[in-house]
Amino acid sequence: MRQPTAIVLGIALAFGAAAVQAQQNRAEVIHWWTSGGESAAVKELANAYKAAGGTWVDSAIAGGEAARSTAINRIVGGTPSTAAQFNTSKQFHDVIDAGLLNNVDEVAQKNNWDKILPAPILNAIKVKGHFYAVPVNIHMPAWFWYSKSAFAKAGIAAEPKTADEFFADLDKLKAAGVVPLAQGGQPWQEKILFDAWLAHTGGSELYLKVYRDRDAGAVNSPAFKKVLVSFKRLKTYIDAGSPGRNWNDATAMLITGKAGVQIMGDWAKGEFQAANQTAGKEYGCFPGFGPKSPYIIAGDVFVFPKTTDPAQIKSQHLLADTFTSPATQVAFNNKKGSIPIRTDVDSKGMDICAQTGLQVMKDPSRQLPNPEMLVSPDVAGVLQDIVTKYWNTNQSADDAVKAIALAIKG
Amino acid sequence: MPPTRRGRGLRHAAAYAALLPMAATVLLAYLGTVAWSVRVSVSSSRTLPIGDFVGFSQYTRLFASERWMLSLENMALFGALFIVGCMVIGFLLAVFIDQRVKGEGVLRTVFLYPYAMSFVATGLVWQWLLNPELGLQSTIRSLGFPNFTFDWIVRQDMVMFAIAIAAVWQASGLVMALMLAGLRGIDDSLWKAARIDGIPTWRVYLSIVLPMLGASIGTALVLLSVGVVKVFDVVVAMTQGGPGLASEVPAKFIIDNLFGRANIGLASAASTVLLVTVLAVLAPWLYSRQRSSRQAGAHS
Q1: Residue from A160, A162, A184, A190 nearest A172 by CA
Q2: Which of A91, A403, B19, B257 would you label with A134, given CA atoms 20 to 30 Å apart?
Q3: Do the beta carbons of residue A341 and residue A324 sit within 8 Å?
């Protein structure tokens, strides 16, 4: 009899304690970080918030789309969470326009976000002079990863500095009997490859003219067509099993030395880590061709749904404040595989790829927003359809140009 | 003692009261949400529902979309392959089990088992099996047939066939179960009569038994047709609509636009079109069923 009583008492006490704590800066946070590395990363955010005197209520929902639609449904339904994750993009701009988000101007001004944040991120979170989201990381979706053993087998001594050198290396890899380019044949991965190719071979200016200015002249220019043609040339270096392949299966081809190069976001590091490989030892990374290559910026933010409850607003501000502090930034991003949103942090604990990324970020002229920050989710989706069709069929570059010109008008 | 008029009225009232929650659910949850979707489909809604009215511009955009038209074509092709495949294989399996084979219980479970599993898992296995670098093709090539080719899943023109194979594998067990129930309902005396007349077994199945399975066939067809219209999981698990747009289907178009592309106006227009399609398929079937039951009533 004694033991059950003790258990009941313990449970009652635990609930009682939780109920008392829940009064203190309770913050319910919706996010989609559910995989092993991701949930370890989000724990860093939660711990930082708890250390700052808050109570973290975790609402993890698997899958970005599911998490975002839950957040939006709850906002529309009138029972929003304290904060909700979105990508650094235009995904939440409709919600801002509808007046359903609180701004965090107070925290932004106190911490001088205008100075410390890179311009592409500022443009994504600052609407009509107000800050509507707190950025937590920078992901670069178009890193070049390569297997050192495959490069050695093909006799490639140095990382390529130009697109021509890159093609020459791909040829060497092919001759050595490895799959030159490990490509996951899913539309979003093909779009990443295309964006990387546009940025690296077409240049930042053309990239921005197409995505930011929606300039039909730029789309119809010979330079853009050249990008499309050489993009398609990459297809001659993939294997027959590419269509439908998941990105991590493509990364595994590098890990086992079956393939040479993969162009993918920095989340690929997690796969190498899980296979006990170290950057600079078994695999290498470079963000583009040469020392001036553009660096595409993507990432995650948290938005704060509208509320007039002063306690909730206080929690929202506390969240924004702790998420962006230098110590939290380093702890979180080391686990997440991304790099901090600010460059004034201690980079000693980071791997060499992250250190390279942080170094690149110090040069604002190399920063390039990812397309999702420049076009609406709708247009981004249509562009993805066009790219995947062009990549997978015999469609001519001219027809693809026509389709893209039509899509960016919309 | 016969119930009084008043007593019967009260009993009816009680029955209606008991049905009320169900009726409310149907009206609000089903018809209400359908009406809501149709309403959203004539607005300019993007991430959030907006109450404006833009006429049929979402529908115009929908039918101008190459991907949507391709999705409809793919659905039609998949539907034909899937329904014919399931019906033929399901019927043959049922006939096979109907021969009073040994271990019938085990076989029935084995054939029906795929239907009980989620395509999210089995689709992935099919993806690997059909992948030319990992699955069947590379295995058979390594066995000493270097020219063996089976790469449907990565080919623009054949990918829907690859998906249909996996889908038929999953659903033919269900058809088998339905058909088997029908076969078991056929009276033994019929078989005896046929045997006395010396009619070969296959002929009995084809000319006598099959026409008697009308109800089972109808049920199977309706279930399979619904499966065709809402086909989604098998595509997402196996190809994600690729290579390119070659295996896109309407349900995936709707989900993509509803969530990922923040385009609920267009997604609602697409689902309205899909609903109309389903009604167009179901209406003749319901009508003919009603007519035949009325005729049967008149004869008796």
Answers
A1: A160
A2: B257
A3: yes
| Overall number of domains in chain B | 1
Inside any domain, residue B57: no
**How many angstroms separate the CA atoms of A103 and A93, rounded?**
13
* Chain B residues inside the 8 Å CB shell of A381: 256-257, 260-261, 263
Look up the CATH superfamily of A143-297+372-409. Answer: Periplasmic binding protein-like II (3.40.190.10)
Contact residues for A309 (Cβ-Cβ < 8 A; gap 6+): none
Nearest residue to A33 (alpha-carbon basis) of A25, A24, A23, A43: A43
Q: Is residue B52 part of a domain?
A: no
Q: For A67, name the nearest residue in chain B, comparing CA atoms only.
A: B259
Topology alike, domains A26-139+298-342 and A143-297+372-409: yes
CA distance B293 to chain A (A): 46
Across the interface, of B238, B246, B259, the residue whose CB is closest to A69 is B259
Residue B220's nearest CA partner among B185, B251, B177 is: B177
**Domain-embedded: residue B96:** yes
Kindly report each contact of residues B150-157 with a partner whose C-beta sits within 8 Å and lies 24 or more positions away, as own/partner.
B151/A240, B153/A243, B153/A244, B153/B127, B153/B238, B153/B239, B154/A185, B154/A240, B154/A241, B154/A242, B154/A243, B154/A244, B154/B243, B155/B243, B155/B246, B156/A392, B156/A393, B156/B243, B156/B244, B156/B246, B157/B246
Asked if the structure places residue B173 within a domain, the reply is yes
Instruction: In whole angstroms, give the CA distance from residue B183 to residue A262.
Output: 56
Domain extents in chain A? 26-139+298-342, 143-297+372-409
CATH code: domain of residue B165: 1.10.3720.10
Per-residue pLDDT of chain B (300 residues; tens, 9 = 90+): 455 556 667 778 888 888 899 888 888 888 999 999 999 999 999 988 888 999 999 999 999 999 999 999 999 999 999 999 999 999 999 999 988 888 888 998 899 899 888 888 888 899 989 999 888 998 999 998 988 989 999 999 999 999 999 999 999 999 999 999 999 888 888 888 988 998 898 888 888 888 888 888 988 998 899 899 889 999 999 998 989 999 999 999 999 998 889 899 999 999 999 999 888 878 887 887 788 777 766 554
Q: Domain A26-139+298-342, what fold?
A: D-Maltodextrin-Binding Protein; domain 2 (3.40.190)
**CB-CB: which of B48, B154, B242 is closest to A388?**
B242
Residues 6+ apart with CB under 8 A from B71: B248, B249, B250, B252, B253
Residue in B48, B242, B256 nearest the CB of A76: B48
Cβ–Cβ below 8 Å for B133 and A378: no
Q: Is B239 helix (H, G, I), strand (E, B) or coil?
A: coil
SS3 category, A22: coil
* Residue B181 lies in domain: 67-291
Taking contacts as CB-CB distances below 8 angstroms, the residues of chain B near A376 are 46, 262
Calculate how close chain A gets to B257, using CA atoms only, in Å. Answer: 8
